[in-house]
Amino acid sequence: MTVLDLLDELEDIMDTASNVPLTGKVMVDKEEIMELVNDIRRSLPDDMKQAKWLKDEQNRILDDAKSEYKKLIVEAKKQADFLVDDNDITLKAKKRAERITQEAEDYSRELKMRTYDYLDRMLYDMQGKMDQLNNTYFVEMYNSLENTFNGIDSVLEKNRDELKQMASRTQNGEEWMYDSKSQDGDDDKE
C-alpha cells in the first residue's frame, strides 16, 4: 500500500468513527490507528537513511583529507631533514617543503570545498524532496482534516441555532414540533 492509500484509509476511519455527543470529537480504535501510523512510517521513502549516510560520508571525506594532509606534511619534513646536510640543499629543501606544504594545504582546502559543495547539493536535493513529501502528503491531509472539522463545526452551529429557537418558542409559550417542515407549515395554518 502507498502512503496515500494509508492516509485515505485513515481518513475513512475518521469519517466512519462514532461521534462523541456535544464535543465535536470521534472515538477511534487506538490499535487500528497505531497500526496505520506504523504502516505509513514503513512506507515513507528512505530519505531519512540517506541523510544519515550523507553525514557519515561527509565525515569520511573530511577524515581522508586530513589524513592525506598529514601524510604530505610528514613526507615533506622527511625530505627536508634528509637534505639538511648541505646549506644550499637545505635552502632548496625548505623551499620544496614549503611548496609541498602549500600544495598539501591547497589540495586539502580544495578537497574540503568540493566536499562542502557536494554535501550542499545533496542537502539541497533532500530539502526539495522533503518539501515535495510535505506538499504531497501532509498539506493534502491537513486540508482534508480542516474541511472535516469545518463541516462538523457547521453542523454544531446549526444544532445550537435550532436549540435556541426551541428555547425561545418554549419561553414564549408557543406550540411547536421538532420537525422543521411542521414548524413552517403549521404556523401558517393556525
TrEMBL record:
Residues 165-190 are annotated as: Disordered. The keyword Coiled coil applies. Residues 48-110 form a coiled coil. It comes from the Bacteria. Keywords: Coiled coil. This is ATPase.
